[in-house]
Design a protein that fits this description.
- The protein is an alpha/beta fold and about 260 residues long.
- The protein has one domain (about 10-245): Rossmann fold (3-Layer(aba) Sandwich), CATH 3.40.50.720.
- Helix content is about 40%, strand content about 10%.
- It is built from nine helices and seven strands.
- The chain has helices at about 15-30, 40-50, 65-80, 105-110, 115-130, 150-170, 190-195, 200-205, 220-230, and strands at about 10, 30-35, 55-60, 85-90, 135-140, 175-180, 240.
- Strands 3-2-1-4-5-6-7 form a seven-stranded parallel sheet, with helices on both faces.
- Helix 2 (about 40-50) links the parallel strand 2 (about 30-35) and strand 3.
- Helix 4 (about 105-110) runs parallel beside helix 5.
- The protein is globular.
- The protein starts with 7 loop residues before the first strand and ends in a 24-residue tail after the last strand.
- The mean pLDDT is about 95.
Length: about 260
């Protein structure tokens, strides 16, 4: 993709799942990457594996709920690589609570989710200015639909889209800001919900939620993310890219496997 080589990116929550796939894809495009994660051991293991193939990558352990860490993360990227061009806001809590959600549940979800995204965007701009750059925020299909017992998660993901639009307006024309709404992606979090953690069972259960009749892979979301960062998406800002395998396009009839239609000759 155009314009990526030699650039520098931050990826939050880059130790595993979609975040890790984004880190690796950026490295393959010759982008230098600083990624972060809460679990220092997991992050260092990921860094060690990436270092076997790539030199221009580093890891910093910390919690996105901490505004001081957000400031430190941006400063560290600039200090290590000499510049900063891209931000991928990916780290997000999987706090899914409904009618019984406590105020603490709400506070944590918002602070570790859209508020941390906003803080990172603010630091990105404060420390490097509004010259050319690109930001991608990770949203979700859950920000567009109702799901049972998910008030906290869905409301927080919905907020990401509005944050993206407002930031895109205020940071234009220099910085483009977009978000991505993945569907069901085979990651560690989805594995927790799958019976016995079995991928084939998960595909059988949830693949039919998607027109492509399978779950997405982290690498597919990473490709969409890197596209939005690249110059190939130079006219795209304030957009929400549905990288969800047709999930949001399906109606109540789903794939139509059980539907009978009236027809005419």
């Amino acid at each position: 993709m155009r314009g990526l080589k030699g650039k520098v990116a931050i990826v939050t929550g880059g130790s595993r799942g979609i975040g890790r796939a984004c880190v690796q894809r950026l490295l393959e495009e010759e982008v230098s990457v600083l990624f972060c994660g809460r679990n220092e051991e997991v992050g260092k293991n990921t860094l060690k594996e990436l270092k076997e193939k790539f030199e221009n990558v580093d890891f910093l352990a910390g919690n996105m709920i901490d505004p001081v860490f957000c400031k430190t993360l941006v400063a560290a990227a600039i200090e290590k690589f000499g510049r900063l061009d891209y931000l991928v806001n990916n780290a997000f809590p999987f706090t899914a609570k409904g009618v019984n959600a406590t105020r603490e549940d709400w506070t944590y979800t918002m602070e570790a989710g859209p508020i941390s995204y906003a803080t990172m965007i603010q630091e990105f701009v404060r420390q490097r200015g509004k010259e050319n750059g690109s930001i991608v925020n990770m949203s979700s299909i859950s920000g567009h639909i109702a799901q049972p017992d998910r008030w906290t998660y869905n409301a927080a993901k919905g907020a990401v889209k509005q944050l993206t639009r407002c930031a895109a307006l205020d940071l234009s024309p220099g910085i483009r800001v977009n978000c991505i709404s993945p569907g069901w992606v085979w990651t560690d979090e989805v594995k927790k919900a799958a019976p016995n953690g079995d991928e084939q069972t998960a595909q059988d259960l949830w693949g039919d939620f998607h027109m492509i009749q399978r779950l997405e892979r982290p690498e597919e979301i990473a490709s969409a993310t890197v596209f939005l960062l690249s110059d190939d998406a130079s006219a795209v800002t304030a957009a929400d890219l549905f990288a969800e395998g047709g999930y949001l396009g399906l109606g109540p009839e789903g794939l139509g496997k059980d539907s009978a239609f009236a027809g005419s000759d």
